[in-house]
């Protein structure tokens, strides 16, 4: 018997067969919960999404497996820790040594946990059309900045600068990518660099995610940007 629909007439009401997806983060928010459940309803999917935190990541991932949870979003500080707890790690996660998504293949008895990094995959798709001879600037040195940098590097962008207020993480990311490091953007934001002179492709700014210090009166927002820079002098 097909479960009855919700009042909106799209997603079935909760029932014994409803699939569950979760997120694991140090500070879970309502953003992902609202976003996923809204789309489940719009698409008529018999799924439920709920955000969690945990003090025992191994037990939490064990619960994903034991309870047949279909998928799990992974945020800081668990992105590296979960790598030892899954059955398979896709190249996207290996590229930056960090996981943001776990999919549980329920066709395998006991489940089969496959880890990936969708940030890395998404950025690679976004930059597919860009001129590889352009230099790039990455602002920030957090988890998303790592994904952006690795995606750019692996797509052939070999000239760039990491701008980060944290010199330790900024220099470490720059060294990993083979890019330069700078503590401030400074003159690197010249307006004439917003368009590639070779490809003529308008790049502008792309919001990603890395920490910026904000006044306490404003909500903390995580973001970073990358855009083309002039090539290094030869």
Question: Can you give me a brief rundown of this structure?
Answer:
The chain has 6 helices and 10 strands.
How many domain modules? 2
- Give the radius of gyration: 20 Å
* Total E-strand runs: 10
**Low-confidence sequence ranges:** 189-234
Q: Report how far apart the termini are.
A: 71 Å
Domain Shikimate dehydrogenase substrate binding N-terminal: 34-102
GO biological process, one term: chorismate biosynthetic process
Organism: Mycolicibacterium conceptionense
Region (Disordered): 192-234
Descriptors:
234 residues; alpha/beta; Rossmann fold; 2 domains; six-stranded mixed sheet; four-stranded mixed sheet
What is the secondary structure topology, with strand pairs?
Layout: E1 19-24, H1 31-43, E2 47-52, H2 57-66, E3 71-74, E4 88-89, H3 91-94, E5 101-104, E6 113-116, H4 118-126, E7 135-139, H5 143-154, E8 160-163, H6 167-177, E9 180-182, E10 226-229
Parallel strand pairs: 1-2, 1-3, 4-6, 7-8, 8-9
Antiparallel strand pairs: 3-5, 5-6, 7-10
Helix pairs in contact: 4-5
């Amino acid at each position: 018997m097909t479960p009855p629909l919700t009042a909106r007439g799209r997603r079935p009401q909760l029932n014994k067969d409803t699939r569950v997806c979760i997120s694991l983060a140090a500070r879970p928010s309502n953003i992902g919960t609202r976003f996923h459940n809204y789309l489940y309803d719009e698409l008529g999917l018999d799924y439920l999404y709920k955000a969690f935190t945990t003090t025992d990541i191994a037990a939490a991932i064990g619960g994903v497996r034991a309870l047949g949870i279909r998928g799990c979003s992974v945020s800081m500080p668990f992105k590296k820790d979960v790598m030892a707890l899954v059955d398979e790690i896709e190249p996207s996660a290996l590229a930056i040594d960090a996981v943001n998504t776990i999919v549980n293949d329920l066709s395998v008895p006991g489940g089969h946990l496959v880890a990936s990094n969708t940030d890395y995959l998404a950025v690679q798709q976004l930059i597919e059309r860009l001129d590889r001879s352009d230099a790039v600037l990455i602002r920030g040195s957090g988890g998303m900045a790592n994904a952006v940098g690795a995606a750019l590097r692996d797509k052939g962008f070999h000239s760039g600068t990491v701008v980060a207020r944290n010199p330790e993480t900024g220099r470490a990311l720059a060294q990993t990518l083979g890019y330069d490091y700078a503590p401030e953007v400074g003159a690197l934001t010249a307006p004439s660099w917003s368009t590639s002179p070779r490809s003529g492709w308008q790049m502008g700014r792309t919001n990603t995610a890395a920490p910026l210090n904000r006044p306490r009166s404003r909500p903390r927002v995580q973001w970073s940007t990358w855009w083309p820079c002039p090539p290094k002098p030869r």
